[in-house]
Amino acid sequence: MHLFWLLLQVLAFTPEALKHGLHSNSSSSELRPPRVYFLFLAVDKISNLDVWSAFFDSADSEKYRAFVHCKEKQCVQQMAGSPIVPVPTVSSYYCTDLVSPMNQLLSYALSTDLGPTNALDKFAFISDSALPAKPFSEIHRTLGDREGSDFCVFPPGEWADLPNGDGEGLEVAVKVHQWITLSRAHAERASDMWQKGVMHNFMTYFKMNQLGWNNMLDNNFADNRNWGCLDEFWYVTALYGTLKKVHAEGDQSIDLPEFTGSPLRIDKTAGWQGKCDTFVIWAKYMHSLGRNEQQNLMLSLDPPSVPHGGNWARPGWWDTISTKGIQAIRNSDFLFVRKFIDKPALHDGGDFAAAYTKIVVEGIAPTPTS
Predict the structure, then answer these.
(1) DSSP string, 158-210
(2) Which in 100, 173, 211, 305 has the greatest CB count within 10 A?
(3) pLDDT tens profile 291-333
(4) Interval 36-94: pLDDT, tens
(5) What is the maximum alpha-carbon separation in the chain?
(6) Is the pLDDT of residue 100 over 80?
(7) Residue 7 in this model has a pLDDT that exceeds 60
(8) In terms of Cα–Cα distance, which of 84, 12, 21 is closest to 48?
(9) CA 190, 165, 257, 174 torsion-angle sign
(10) Helix axes 293-300, 323-331, angle to 10 degrees
(11) Higher pLDDT, 243 or 366
């Protein structure tokens, strides 16, 4: 049954279908509840697929769709029999272009899921090392109640900037986590803009990664030294444009429509902004996050559940966690968490997938230990 449905999806992936997905669907009668599109980016596998399978098994099939872009063939093979449908693979390059596979997922979701739409549909990008932090019903309700898109905005020291063309202030591009959640309107616009070549030259225009320094540790706001990846800038820049005539000293704000957590504060002292659906920890901010969602989760973890810190280029990860740590994830403000290795150890003993499914997917709290 799964293979038959997958064949139908592949046959439907035509320019005509894509056009229908981008334009006709937008005006369809809204005869169904909001739907969450889970869009996975994977290399050779989705880690802990058994947890994700249990998560989708608990869901109303009319309220979600799940797609994955696989870089390697074994990832496509892994999806056989799962509720996650592979899309045709496109060329991608770490950092310089992960936007092509992201927009392949968007285009495929928009063009193959025909019929009525809902303006409150959401398109959530998910890492192959991520796990849900809430039961499906809670994720669906939370995202369905929001009208805009969710961008997890890095502190301004990570943003890209250049002298403004007219000499007045700076032109600034906002840096966000790759794991964004887009509204239907933004998903349609982004897919259309990418196909038209909008901001394909971003990396060159902002001279990304061309000036060296000490592992980004002295990367500061308004210093004209820009570091980052296309996927961290393209969506918010394509949808909202760059910020013009920004003062080097900051202390400004701008209201962004359909942007969860707006207004955006432009100030070198600002911390995380927007809405972070996915928890991820960077070594640079491990001990200097301030009181926010990331710090709250870190402080709630018992010692065996504290993730490895990673480094300046790679985020931290879990290879061991306790049931208490899993419950802390369930109690956090996040919808998803990363990074988890495949089949991590459960500190208490026993099977990680079974414990995680029970606590997070089914919402059953662990039995307290003496």
Answers:
(1) GSEEEE-TTSSSEEEE--B-S--EEEHHHHHHHHHHHHTTTTTTHHHHTTTT-
(2) 173
(3) 678 888 998 999 999 998 877 778 889 999 999 999 999 999 9
(4) 999 999 999 999 999 999 999 999 999 999 999 999 999 999 999 999 999 999 998 88
(5) 67
(6) yes
(7) no
(8) 84
(9) positive
(10) 160
(11) 243
Q: Which helix (DSSP H) or strand (DSSP E) does residue 253 occupy?
A: strand 252-254
Ordered DSSP codes for 70-127: ESSHHHHHHTTTSSPEEEPP---BTTTB-HHHHHHHHHHHHHHS-S---TT-EEEEEE
The span from the CA of 51 to the CA of 33, in Å, is: 25
Q: With contact defined as beta carbons under 8 Å apart, do 66 and 122 qualify?
A: no
Give which of 144, 81, 55, 69 is closest to 353, Cα–Cα: 55
Contact criterion met (CB below 8 Å) for 95 and 69: no
Work out the pLDDT band at 202, boundaries 50, 70, 90: very high
Closest CA to 59 of 360, 361, 364: 361
> What distance lies between CA 239 and its chain's CA centroid?
16
Structural domains of the chain, with CATH: 1-128 (3.40.1380), 158-177+200-274 (no CATH), 277-370 (no CATH)
pLDDT at residue 163 tops 80: yes
232: three-class secondary structure by DSSP: helix
CB 235 within 8 A of CB 189: no
Residue type (1 letter), 31: L
Average of per-residue pLDDT across 237-263: 91
Tokens of 237: 């820049």
131 phi/psi in degrees, rounded to 5: -135, 155
CA angle 112, 93, 191 (to 5 degrees): 30
Mean pLDDT, rounded, for 239-249: 89
Is the model more confident about 129 or about 3?
A: 129
Q: Hey, what long-range contacts does 254-262 have (CB within 8 A, 24 or more apart)?
A: 257/148, 258/147, 258/148, 258/149, 258/183, 258/185, 258/186, 259/148, 259/149, 259/151, 260/146, 260/148, 260/149, 260/150, 260/151, 261/151, 261/153, 262/148
Helix and strand element counts for the chain (H, E): 12, 17
